[in-house]
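hi! just following up on the protien thing from before. the input was this:
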Amino acid sequence: MVDPKLQNLRGVSRRRFVRWLGAAGAALAVDRSRLLNFASDSGGVALADGLCAPTNRSVHIVGGNGSFGWFQLLWPHVEVAQSGNASFAYHSFGVPGVMVPAAGANHDFYYAPEAPWVTNGVPTRPMTAMMSGANETHTQTPTTPAVVASNASMIATAASIQRQVPTLLPVLGVGPVNLGAAPGAPSAANVPSANSMIDLFNSAASQLILSKQGDRDLYETYYKALVGLREGAKLPTWSRHLDVTKKASHVLGTNLGGMLTPTAGDLATYGLTALAASSASSEAKAKLDNLGRTLITTAKAFKLNLSMCVQVALAPGASDNNFSDPHNAFNNMAALSATVTALGTMLNAFFNELEGAADPNCDGSMIADNLVLTVHGDTPKTPLQASGWPDNTPGNANWVYAMGAGHLRSGWFGRVKASGAVAGYDPTSGADVAGKSASETSTSTGAAVAYAIAKGDMKKVEDYYSGPEITGIVV
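and the predicted 3d structure came back as:
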């Protein structure tokens, strides 16, 4: 029966009740469906609609061997893009992008013409860039830009926070990536390529032993019946583990290859068909194709609620001077333009697809609304010289790009100026600090990303982070 006191909750009171209900459910290991039923029975459907998983999903793109520099062409330093200096490492001085000036606690930011998430000159998913870590030139698995503490990497911290939401494979790694360590972090399921990612979900049992639909259904039914006979099945301490194994029993009898494989339509939508026919280098085509296919399969896996966290290497393999460690990028502007266009197109397509997909972990919202994306790498390459595009950066600086699902203040926090001067930032106020090393804000940057993944719950972040307050960079 609906309780009028609960049905009429509004504003802060409603939000507090939903938060307390979620916390109580987590503490007692009550599954989400039961919480929804209770909320609906006690407070009506509108109250139940406010219940969501306590964490966001995340995708982390890692640009090793200098490939991280490509993202600087989507989201350049503001003074570089506005300088008009053709000797700088920027490609679109003649075609204006979108300049978003600082407003309130948000800082200024510049979107190149190919940048994703801009519609009619207005950013639809504001970006944040934070100075973080040191230049790690020619490293496939960089570490210093993406940390939360000395014993906690940014992505492992994300995965640890996300363990509150049971999934079959909590973390997927594609290519030579390193999850790192963090207290409570799960192990990552690593595969070498996007195609191997599909194979990971292809159950041998479904293709051989359980090839008939009747056998698959019977196996799952028997397994769940046996679980139901177990005395421990009703204990809170077993609830999460049994939830995962029930999902596993279903997947074991299901061949997911067809459900996760990119279609011809997907390849066209994500720009991979156009990329194959473009003037991009052969190295760029191969590595961007792998990234695009990974994003396609990730979108499908998120819809099936198979994972919470995916990290992918942008440029697996050796340096080639064209895409990995692209010193020659500005020698062929047509190839450069095709590469940058492909990156922007596939990121747009990825979020567009998930904007139309209901979130299985959050009634009434779409997956894209509960998804954080980050990009970091070994070296962003200098923004101040196009010729030979050198690896060294002013002040040995590095940085992280993040789309924080509304939990991060937007714009550049710290920056490289056209003069070559470098500023860091104060995480508590958000203000730029001239001459401050990017290494000094590595953990604050990682904590901000963790905050976005924790949906603004700083107490969860404090389980890993003990640095200064990050009130100046989060919402």
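The mean pLDDT is 86.
Residues 203-255 form one domain.
cheers
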